[in-house]
Structure to design on (588 residues):
């Protein structure tokens, strides 16, 4: 059997629920952060930078670097490595400062 | 005559006052903070234990949420039973009302309480702590404070380090321990320090292929002080355990080498590794490319001191090039009533943090004489920590792997060239001036990722203490609620 993090920790989580990432359904295990649920699907980027528009995702994993920001349930600039993935959470790739709605050029 | 509800209201306020007033506030629930809080509560002190995380344990004992149903969290850790024993003692003290655990509380401001200094602790100031929960602030007061805020990782930039799939070594560990996930299937581990071996061992145990561990320092440095090593056989044992695990998984250890570039467009697909000279300057012609889909990188840890340095606490230089709080034999900082333990006193690992947390608690509780064995353990482990720090100190030549367009500040997307211009053309001689001229370190993370690198690029030979009024970003709405 292939070793996995779940097999290493002998984890038997409850059934996966679903979050939404840029409109597509993503499974998330109960207790995982949003960033962890995205990593589990091989998704490593969910933000583009303000100046060069480059892709970014989780870097430090502990809430210090702010690289994992995304728009979560309509709120921009949320640290996805700290936020639990709740059933039905919607995550949207954040463009720039995430405040295009304010029309701040 | 006040209304008839006044006596009740007054009683409520009294209860509120009593509830939020503690003998000791411990900031940080990692090894040092946990050990300190339970030892202090053992001696009858009423403690508040505050931590920014959801569960106690800090980064070292970070573990899966209960909902993940991990039956064997011990396999993600060394000495897991030490944590479960501490957690049991914590639970008993919480039950008895001696410790109040405040999870998801990030202490952003520590101030001498203007209303403090009551008769119950005449020789100590009272402290007022302000914490953010992300939505609101909360306050409490305490006669003494034990700072056990740990450390964060030091990063040295290199071309491509902002690509998705490049993560910090500690971050890879944290995401694995808490979320049971990996950033990729084939993960190069690089940087400097013993965390790299631990990270590589746990990544392979969790099913990742680690083609290489790339260590910029040279472990031979340890061999120069055999006496210090012999005094901590446990540390050697851990090293051997990791080494055996890595050998079994055919992990190649490159010494005196560094990842000097990460390749890819949307995510990392390969890295270039080069040999380093004694100053960490890449040796031309030694480059080799290693395919991977993730890179876990870090150059040791930086003690997190903002709350103390803002109060004027004195620091000391550590041989790894960081600053730590200066403490006396009983873990007292130079600020009266403020104590520190663990990584805040210089990065030294969990075992040392446990010893220092307990020593601090005993002193705060008024024990006249600390146990001799505990003092000896701290001395041995601190000696090893200083040796380890010297072996992994970044060499002065690492900027040799930067290119003009290499981003140094990730938040503000400031390339190395702009920093060089600030130094060479605009006359900046310190990180603060570089920040004002280029915005490097002025973004979301407030320089926690680029600060050490910017300081070196600004020509600062010695680190200087951060002074920041608030230790983490706080919303204006939250600040507006402050009493």
């Amino acid at each position: 059997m292939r070793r996995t993090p779940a097999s290493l920790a002998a984890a038997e989580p409850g059934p996966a629920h679903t979050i939404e990432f840029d409109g597509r359904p993503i499974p998330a295990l109960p207790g995982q952060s949003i960033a962890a649920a995205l990593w589990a699907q091989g998704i490593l980027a969910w933000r583009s930078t303000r100046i060069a528009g480059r892709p970014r995702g989780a870097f430090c994993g502990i809430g210090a670097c702010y690289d994992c920001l995304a728009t979560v349930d309509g709120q921009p600039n949320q640290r996805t490595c700290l936020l639990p993935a709740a059933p039905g959470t919607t995550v949207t790739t954040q463009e720039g400062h995430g405040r295009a709605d304010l029309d701040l050029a | 005559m006040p209304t008839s509800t006044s006596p009740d209201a007054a009683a409520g306020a009294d209860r509120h006052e009593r509830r939020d007033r503690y003998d000791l506030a411990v900031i940080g629930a990692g090894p040092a903070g946990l050990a300190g809080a339970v030892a202090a509560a053992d001696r009858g002190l009423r403690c508040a234990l505050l931590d920014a995380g959801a569960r106690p344990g800090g980064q070292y004992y970070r573990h899966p949420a209960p909902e993940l149903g991990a039956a064997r969290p011990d396999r993600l850790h060394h000495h897991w039973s030490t944590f479960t024993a501490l957690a049991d003692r914590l639970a008993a003290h919480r039950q008895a009302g001696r410790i109040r655990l405040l999870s998801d509380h990030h202490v952003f401001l520590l101030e001498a309480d203007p209303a403090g200094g009551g008769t119950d602790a005449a020789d100590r100031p009272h402290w007022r702590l302000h914490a953010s929960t992300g939505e609101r602030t909360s306050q409490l007061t305490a006669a003494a404070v034990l700072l056990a805020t740990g450390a964060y990782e030091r990063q040295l930039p290199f071309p491509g380090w902002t690509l998705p799939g490049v993560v910090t070594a500690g971050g890879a560990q944290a995401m694995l321990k808490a979320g049971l996930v990996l950033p990729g299937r084939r993960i190069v581990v690089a940087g400097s320090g013993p965390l790299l071996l631990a990270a590589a061992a746990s990544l392979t145990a969790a099913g990742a292929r680690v083609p290489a561990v790339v260590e910029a320092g040279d472990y031979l440095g340890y061999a120069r002080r055999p006496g210090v090593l012999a005094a901590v056989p446990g540390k050697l044992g851990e090293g051997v355990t990791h080494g055996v695990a890595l050998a079994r998984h055919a992990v190649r250890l490159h010494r005196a080498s560094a990842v000097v570039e990460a390749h890819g467009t949307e995510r990392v697909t390969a890295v270039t590794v080069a040999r380093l000279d004694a100053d960490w300057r890449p040796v031309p012609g030694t480059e080799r490319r290693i395919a991977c889909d993730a890179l876990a990188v870090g150059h040791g840890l930086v003690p997190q001191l903002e709350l103390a340095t803002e109060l004027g606490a004195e620091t000391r230089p550590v041989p790894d090039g960081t600053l730590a709080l200066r403490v006396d034999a009983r873990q007292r900082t130079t600020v009266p009533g403020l104590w520190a333990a663990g990584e805040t006193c210089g990065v030294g690992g969990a075992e040392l943090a446990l010893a220092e947390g307990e020593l601090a608690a005993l002193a705060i509780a008024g024990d006249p004489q600390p146990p001799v064995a505990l003092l000896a353990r701290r001395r041995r482990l601190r000696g090893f920590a200083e040796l380890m720090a010297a072996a992994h100190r970044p060499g002065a030549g690492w900027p040799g792997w930067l290119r003009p367009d290499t981003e140094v500040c990730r938040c503000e997307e400031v390339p190395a060239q702009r920093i060089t211009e600030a130094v060479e053309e605009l006359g900046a001689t310190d990180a603060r001036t570089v920040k004002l001229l280029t915005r490097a370190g002025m973004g979301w993370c407030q320089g926690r990722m680029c600060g050490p690198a910017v300081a070196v690029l600004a020509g600062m030979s010695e680190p200087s203490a951060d002074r920041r009024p608030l230790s983490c970003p706080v919303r204006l709405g939250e600040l507006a609620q402050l009493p």
Observations:
- Residues 34-40 of chain A form the longest helix (7 residues).
